[in-house]
Write a structure and sequence with these properties.
Elements lengths: L34 H28 L7 E4 L2 E5 L6 H8 L5 E6 L4 H5 L8 E4 L16 H17 L2 E5 L4 E4 L2 E4 L2 E5 L5 E3 L3 E5 L9 H16 L2 H8 L3 H21 L6 H9 L16 H22 L4 H4 L11
Parallel strand pairs: 8-10
Antiparallel strand pairs: 1-7, 2-3, 4-5, 5-6, 9-10
Helix pairs in contact: 1-2, 1-5, 5-7, 5-8, 7-9, 8-9
C-alpha cells in the first residue's frame, strides 16, 4: 500500500470541483496493485484531514481579531503525489496525470463559498506557476508541498487573492480571509498532538478523532493556545524545566475556552474535555511535573468561564487579548 507523507501540508487555501475520472487502464508496472484499496486508504486519510481542517479553520478564523499575528488564507489543503511512498500508485489511484491536486477544503472558508472546487481536482497552476514543474525530492519528501503552500500564502499576501488553474483548463480566483497564523497538519501515523509555534500537528491515530466536533475542537484549541501565546519561543529562551512547562500548560488550558467561544462552541466544553480526558491519562501523568493534576486543571479552566461570560455580555465577544490574564511575559523572558 502506498505510504503517506509524514506531513500532509497546511491550512491555507480553498478549492472544490469534480474529481478527475480514474484512468481506464492500469500501467504494466502497477499490475497486481489494488487501486480500489489504495483509493480507500487515501480517502480515509483525507477524511481525517478534512475534519482537522474544518475544526482548525473555525478556531483560527473565529479568533483572528485577537491574535497577535494573522495571515491571509482561503482554506485549501493541497496534495503532492510525489510526496507519497509510491507516487505512481497515488497518481493511478486518483486518476492524476500530474502530481498536484486538492486534498481538502475547510468548511466555511472563502474558496468553499466560491462554490467551484472539490477534493482530488487536479491542479496545474498557482497564479503564474505550475507546481508540477518544480523539482521533486525523494519519495516521502514533503518539502515541495510546503513550497506550494508557502507560494499560495505569498500570492494572497502580495495580490489579495490567487488564481488556481486545473488540468481541464478551468480556473478560479479566490480571495482570502484573515486567520490566526497557525497551520494544521495531519501525520500519517501516530497519536501525537503537538504545537511547535507555527503549526499544530496531529497524528491520524489521535484518540480525539473519536470525539464529537466540540471535544475535538477543544483538543485543537489547547494546542493552538500554545502557538498564540508564544510558548515554544519562550521555552526556547527560558529552558524547558518542569516548572516552566507547567506554566505554559496552565496558560494553554485556561485560554482553551476563550478560543472555543469565538469559534462558536460553548466554552464549557473545555471543562468537559478535561473532565473526560484527565482520568484517562496514565497514573503517572496525573502528577507529572510538567502538568498540574487533571482536577486542578479542571478548576483552572472553570475559573475562566465567568470571565468569558462577562466579556461577552459587555462586548459581544470573548476578547482574550484584553481580558486573559497571562502567567508569563513572553517578550521579556519573565
Amino acid at each position: 500500500m502506498v505510504a503517506f507523507p509524514r506531513h500532509a501540508g497546511t491550512l491555507h487555501v480553498l478549492v472544490a470541483i469534480m474529481a478527475t475520472p480514474l484512468a481506464a487502464a492500469t500501467p504494466p508496472p502497477l499490475e497486481g496493485i489494488n487501486l480500489a484499496a489504495e483509493r480507500a486508504a487515501i480517502a480515509r486519510f483525507q477524511d481525517h484531514d478534512q475534519r482537522l481542517q474544518d475544526m482548525g479553520w473555525r478556531l483560527v478564523r473565529g479568533n483572528a481579531a485577537f491574535c497577535p499575528q494573522v495571515i491571509p488564507s482561503i482554506g485549501l489543503q493541497l496534495q503532492d503525489a510525489a510526496s507519497y511512498g509510491r507516487p505512481e500508485i497515488a497518481r493511478a489511484a486518483l486518476g492524476l496525470t500530474g502530481d498536484f491536486a486538492v486534498q481538502t477544503v475547510a468548511a466555511g472558508s472563502p474558496a468553499q463559498q466560491a462554490g467551484s472546487l472539490t477534493r482530488n481536482r487536479e491542479i496545474t497552476r498557482l497564479e503564474r506557476f505550475d507546481p508540477n514543474g518544480w523539482p521533486a525530492g525523494a519519495q516521502l519528501d514533503w518539502q515541495r508541498l510546503a513550497r506550494a503552500h508557502d507560494h499560495i500564502t505569498a500570492m494572497l499576501t502580495d495580490h489579495g487573492g490567487i488564481a488556481i488553474g486545473f488540468a481541464d483548463g478551468a480556473a478560479v480566483r479566490v480571495q482570502p480571509a484573515l486567520v490566526c497564523a497557525t497551520r494544521f497538519e495531519l501525520m500519517g501515523e501516530g497519536t501525537a498532538a503537538v504545537a511547535d509555534g507555527t503549526r499544530v500537528v496531529i497524528g491520524i491515530e489521535a484518540p480525539g478523532f473519536a470525539d464529537d466536533d466540540a471535544m475535538f475542537a477543544a483538543m485543537l484549541a489547547h494546542e493552538l493556545a500554545h502557538n498564540l501565546l508564544g510558548h515554544a519561543a519562550w521555552l526556547d529562551r527560558k529552558g524547558r524545566a518542569a516548572g516552566q512547562s507547567r506554566r505554559t500548560e496552565r496558560e494553554a488550558d485556561r485560554l482553551m475556552p476563550w478560543l472555543l467561544a469565538n469559534a462558536g462552541f460553548a466554552p464549557e466544553v473545555a471543562v468537559g474535555f478535561m473532565q473526560a480526558w484527565g482520568p484517562r491519562l496514565p497514573a503517572g501523568r496525573l502528577i507529572a511535573p510538567t502538568h498540574d493534576s487533571w482536577t486542578r486543571r479542571v478548576r483552572a479552566i472553570a475559573a475562566e468561564l465567568p470571565l468569558i461570560a462577562a466579556a461577552r455580555a459587555v462586548e459581544g465577544e470573548a476578547d482574550w487579548r484584553r481580558h486573559f490574564r497571562r502567567e508569563i511575559v513572553p517578550d521579556d523572558g519573565g
